[in-house]
Amino acid sequence: MSAVPADVLPGAALAVEQQRVAGPGELGPKARLWPSLVAVYRAQLSRARVARIPLLFVATFQSIGIMILMRGVVDGGGEAQAVVAGSAVLVVAFVALNLLAQYFGQLRASGGLDHYATLPVPPAAVVLGAAGAYASFTVPGTVVTAVFGCLLFGLPMTHLWVLVAVIPLAGAALAGLGAALGLLAPRPEFATLLGQLGMSAALLLGVLPPERLPGVVRLARDLLPSTYGVEAFARTFGPRPDWAFVLGDLAVCAAVGVISLAVATWAYRRAAVR
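Given the sequence above, the corresponding structure tokens read:
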């Protein structure tokens, strides 16, 4: 049997020439943000679903216990509005700030970021998907806390629908901050510590009435992302809410959320390449 070179076959020279002109094969299209975000959100939601009952119980019971303690100090009026609004947003802070910082800190220490780095998923989809999954569990606890607080302090429940805007906006701001703390912390222990310190700040500066805080502490309160969600919710308890100020607080909360999530995305890229 004789071997015949491939280039002497009919049409072989044309095929070789076309292969040279074509060059290397093209890569597939990049993954889009929205489908990737939905995929990461569903995966994180199913993973965190196992701990949702203890999660909701601890976060809700903590906020309700704080309101019961404050009932002996605050009678009503603007101070009661601040306590109820701050306690409701505290449920969001417990999950979005504290637990998310721990999650990303452990994910970085265990090498879990390498898994996401090998997937065709944009970094923003990873951060937003995880933040959205953890923040989703705060909805029932926040609503229960707000209803209980209104019954405890005798506040109207007419405008509780504003939580539809307060929960995602405050959750985005706090989730971005929590994810950034977890990704930038050198060790998971530091991530846990920073998350707990952030939640303690949300507790002290968000639940306590601002009228009773010193001037320096009020300035620190204005720098906390969840403050504007608390202020927006607290303004709706009045007989005639000033919706311009409510929308202004929500707009500030949304802007802070965009910035904090952008910082978290940068921190994810920085941690993934190391």
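Residues 14-28 have pLDDT under 50 and may be disordered. Try to locate this feature in the token string yourself.
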